[in-house]
Write a structure and sequence with these properties.
With about 210 residues, the protein is an alpha/beta fold. The protein has a single domain, classed as P-loop containing nucleotide triphosphate hydrolases (Rossmann fold, 3-Layer(aba) Sandwich), CATH 3.40.50. The chain has a 5-stranded parallel sheet with strand order 2-3-1-4-5, with helices on both faces.
Length: about 210
């Protein structure tokens, strides 16, 4: 069964949309497993606490490697077993976030990150990634309304602008053709009421599920 990833900037509504999508797929009788990055395992949850702690000073390379460690454990312990059992796996962030945040945002070498990601994932390719597109200011405002900003959210505006530009490029056919390890990426407008956004997300997912079934 497929691996479907929801990506996007801070405040884009990934967690909300993942929950709505999961409920809709379960109503159709599908077995759905919901996971998030970083996290999803005891090791991953510990890494998540470190990475998001605003009191932590973490160098860009250490940050990327911590994400990779959490990812490797999640793929081994949760994602692959769920896929092999026939479940639809819905994942809140995956390696596109590393490409956006650590390569474009932090300025790390892309080739090194791609190789490290290949090691962490064992070559696992998502069947579909939904990129929830939202203006930076709106996303950060939404995130601020949730409460105290975490370490990633506290990065400066230029950092978040680089991340947003990276995601927009990832949705282009040319970038996807050069990065087959990322699988298909579809942009979905995250503006508007959550039910409208959920409808856009579901239509993209349903189309991919239909192709996989055919």
């Amino acid at each position: 069964m497929p691996l479907i990833v929801l990506e996007g900037p801070e405040g884009a509504g990934k967690t909300t949309q993942l929950a709505i999508l999961a409920e809709r797929l379960r109503a159709q009788g599908r077995n759905v497993v919901c996971l998030r990055e970083p996290g999803g395992t005891p090791l991953g949850d510990a890494v998540r606490a470190i990475l998001l702690d605003p009191n932590q000073h973490i160098t860009p390379r250490a940050e990327a490697l911590l994400f990779m460690a959490s990812r490797a454990q999640l793929v081994n312990d949760q994602i692959r077993p769920a896929l092999e059992s026939g479940a639809v796996v819905l994942l809140d962030r995956f390696f596109l976030s590393t490409y956006a945040y650590q390569v474009r945002g932090r300025g790390l070498d892309e080739a090194a990150i791609v190789n490290a990601n290949r090691l962490a994932t064992g070559g696992l390719v998502p069947d579909l990634t939904i990129w929830l597109s939202l203006p930076i200011d709106e996303g950060l405002a939404r995130a601020a309304r949730r409460g105290e900003a975490d370490r990633m959210e506290r990065a400066d505006q230029d950092f978040h602008a680089r991340v947003a530009a990276a995601f927009a490029e990832f949705a282009s056919a040319g970038w996807q053709d050069r990065h087959r390890e990322a699988g298909p990426i579809v942009a979905v407008d995250a503006n508007g009421p959550r039910e409208e956004v959920a409808g856009r997300v579901y239509r993209s997912v349903a189309a991919q599920l239909s192709q996989l079934a055919g």
